[in-house]
Design goal:
Helices cover 68% and strands 0% of the residues. The protein is built from nine helices and no strands. The chain has helices at residues 13-34, 36-42, 51-78, 91-98, 118-152, 161-190, 198-234, 236-254, 282-304. Helix 1 (13-34) packs across helix 2 (36-42) and helix 5 runs antiparallel to helix 6. The longest helix is centred in the C-terminal third of the chain and has 37 residues, at 198-234. The N and C termini lie far apart (58 Å).
């Protein structure tokens, strides 16, 4: 039993993310074996760690969290049109299944004897979206300014290739996010045009609305990724901690229960895979413990515990 279009996969979102992570991990394992540089960078001993081993552990641990972070977003974006195994309930599928703005043909069916006015809703959402986008553009600008400050500092010349790569990756993510946000603003602004045919206007406003959402979400993901990389430039454990907090706080919003839009509960929603989103506040505490607990423990251990 599933929820039709909203839930095509037999997996819960957390299981879908785990499946994606396993695929990426298999690819990474192949690279680990075949690329000598990766093997040299990540090989370490787990006894009493000296500074060089702590450095290697931070890199490896950050890589694992980056793998899970990437898996989360791959699962999210492939949930609509990707492999069936990844078509788990997500905010993306929820809106595509039930939202009139995402599927304007649903507006042809009167609800409560009143026809939905797409023009009004598109324009209201566009106005709110442009205002919100201004804050995101400013955040991307601040991120670029921080990377510029790092590159202008005297210590930049002595930085390792790893740390330079993290900073440059953050800069690239910020630039991509900025471009996506500007495209989204332009798409939202295009919605306010009045077209010469009602049918054409309906299709084009829907097109611009969907384009703006795609651009905004891609920009949002790249903006978060840039922030994570910028933090990891200073300490990889803190970068992993930030990714764990993104998972803990955002998971229930991006991966809702399959029965969220229904009056009756779905029995499958009570399986273990859904324990991550139900039962406030315990589900949040569970996600915080799993996502942020280990990197926080390692961070404290590195700075407060010394080997003798």
């Amino acid at each position: 039993m599933n929820e039709g279009k909203f839930w095509e996969s037999e997996l819960s979102p957390i299981e879908g993310i785990a499946f994606t992570a396993a695929v990426l991990l298999a690819i990474g394992a192949g690279l680990y074996v075949t690329v000598p540089w990766i093997h040299r960078e990540l090989s370490l001993g787990f006894l009493c760690l000296d500074q060089a081993q702590w450095d290697a552990l931070r890199k490896g641990f950050f890589g694992i969290y980056a793998l899970l972070f990437t898996s989360l977003w791959i699962t999210y974006f492939l949930s609509r049109s990707g492999p069936t195994v990844l078509q788990v309930p997500t905010l993306r599928r929820l809106l595509r299944t039930f939202s009139v703005q995402w599927d304007p043909d649903k507006a042809d069916t009167p609800k409560d004897a009143a026809q939905i006015s797409l023009d009004d809703t598109y324009q209201k959402k566009s106005t709110a979206g442009i205002a919100a986008m201004a804050m995101l553009v400013a955040t991307a600008g601040l991120e670029l300014a921080q990377v510029n400050a790092l590159m202008a500092a005297p210590a930049w010349m002595e930085a390792t290739p790893w740390h330079k790569g993290l900073a440059l990756g953050a800069a690239i993510c910020a630039v991509v996010a900025l471009i996506c946000f500007l495209v989204a603003v332009d798409a939202l602004d295009s919605i306010f045009n009045v077209f010469n045919d009602n049918a054409v206007q309906k299709r084009l406003r829907h097109h611009f609305y969907v384009r703006s959402i795609y651009s905004r979400y891609f920009g949002f993901v790249f903006l978060l990724s840039g922030v994570v990389l910028l933090i990891a430039h200073h300490n990889e454990f803190v970068g992993a901690l930030s990714m764990g907090l993104v998972f803990a706080i955002g998971y229930a919003h991006w991966f809702p229960r399959p029965d969220v839009a229904h009056d009756t509960p779905n029995p499958l929603a009570d399986l273990s895979g859904w324990a991550w989103v139900q039962g406030w506040p315990w589900a949040l505490f569970t996600r915080l413990a799993v996502g942020a607990g280990l990197p926080l423990l390692l961070l404290v251990n590195e700075h407060l515990v010394r080997c003798h």
